[in-house]
XRE family transcriptional regulator (Leptospira ilyithenensis), 85 residues
Amino acid sequence: MNQKNISQNQLAILLDDPPLVSRILRGKAEISKKAAILLNKYLDIEFEVLFQKEIEEVAKREFSGREKSKDFLGKGRKKKELITH
């Protein structure tokens, strides 16, 4: 905020929610898409930074899902063995 010469009050007016700004600055608030777009536009904060926690959670779920699917591959069906005479 200091780099862009914007105060907390100006940001509160921009986001139209002073308590939200306070919680965001303390890192204790969920950021809406509207707030993320405004923060990106006026403060040049990348979306990856704004939604880092959510991105990490999705990545963990996808990774654990892949690990679980690997565990179940081949279980339940047995390959037919070739019988030679």
